[in-house]
From TrEMBL:
Alphabetical list of InterPro entries matching this protein: DUF3717 (IPR022191)
Name of protein: DUF3717 domain-containing protein
Pfam families listed in its UniProt record: DUF3717
Length: 74
């Protein structure tokens, strides 16, 4: 699997946010967007533009793979 760009990761977060909007008074992100937001934040803090999919934890990787699968089926 190729490197994930920061822009692709942001698009995946926005996809999940649109699919399952924030809820509650605290506006909590859905599990998928939350899982992807952590590596996204690391890219920003580390001033990196890409991330290896191997660096995603289990749930973030699953959210990423579902996003890619659904995006490619359109």
């Amino acid at each position: 699997m190729s490197e994930i760009t920061i822009h692709e990761l942001e698009a995946a977060i926005n996809f999940w946010r649109a699919r399952s909007p924030s809820s509650g008074d605290e506006l909590v992100l859905c599990k998928e967007a939350s899982a992807l937001s952590k590596p996204y934040a690391l890219l920003i803090v580390q001033r990196q533009q890409t991330l290896s999919p191997d660096r995603l934890d289990g749930f973030a990787r699953q959210a990423w793979e579902v996003y890619v699968s659904l995006k490619n089926s359109l």
